[in-house]
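Checklist before submission:
- one chain only
- standard amino acids only
- sequence pasted in full

Submission:
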Amino acid sequence: MRRSWMRFASACVATGLLGFGSTASYAQTSAVASGSWFNGATWSAGVPDGTTAANVDGGFTVAVDAAGATTNKLDVGNAAGQSGGVSVAAGADLTIANNGPLPSIRIGQAAGGSGTLEVNGGSVTVNGPNADSGFAIGDLMIGDLGSGVMTMTSGTVVASDEMIIAAAPGSAGTVTVSGGTLSTQRRSIIVGFDGNATLNVSDAGSVKPNFDLLVGFRQGSQGTVNQSGGTIEAGIVFTNSFTGGTGSTVNVNMTGGTATARIAYVLGQGRGTTTMNHSGGVINALTNNGDFVVSDGGGNTSVYNISGAAQVNLLHNVIIGTFEGSNGTINQTGGAIVAGDNLAVGRDGVGAWNLAGGSASAKHAFLGDFDTSHGTMKITGGALN
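Returned file contents:
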């Protein structure tokens, strides 16, 4: 079967030229006190500029409290046992210049180090080359080798290439967006590349990767997405994305807001497990392939629980158990699923739909599409239209 909504270009994030924690030789300045970014006394070698890398740890917090802050690399928490923080205020801006080997922001850069980035208005821009690149080149990394936390209440944060939360094995990253817009200009936002990552979206927060939202990328990674409001918009939402071996572990909890997939919304693309609890808010996949998939790849087990006032609106299909070796389940006690075409329960794998409440609507329902598949639909309540 042709996997028409697969975007293999997203996997290019795993082939970077520079690995975790890479360093290079160029002018640097480090925080020696808490204070304004623009105060020379805050830094060991003067205020950073577009030719200087900036390091913040030692328990210090640096405030970007006006427009014009710039550096060619920002590392926060870049020593074991050390912590640091950077805050960006309303009306202020911080720019990472594409003028060095690692134009990036890395929060919690070192193993055993920790860092925070607070954006309360203004703008943060990470520039980079006008082409796909490796780790820490045009990237925003929250939890590189260590532990990173980013909170955003308003303003804009833009990474020219991609954003990675929890990059390395043993790393941890948490990003909370309650206002403003977090986006990438070229590639994806990855929630749990190789570590343990959480993305929280609420209130008026907006998360917009140019490519995809990838949750639980590599074997052993853990990714959690909690959406209680705001918007998530991506080409494809992939969980257990491109994982092999034992796979990754993913949890998605949606109680409000809107999640829009311009191509498809896919739970369980690769090996591993995904559990999604959806009790409020709306999932839309109304363009291109327009599918909602529960367990796509071999070696995957995914469960989608829909209840309450949750809604799913699709241009085409609900597919449960897409390929041989996949195992997907929908447990529906409420909410509404509306597919423009088909409900395929066990396309080429194993699929089950337990309908006890709410409604499911489509043109056709298929149980066990292909020779090796198995499909079960148990109806004890609700409505199948």
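Reviewer check: Confidence is low (pLDDT under 50) at residues 1-19.
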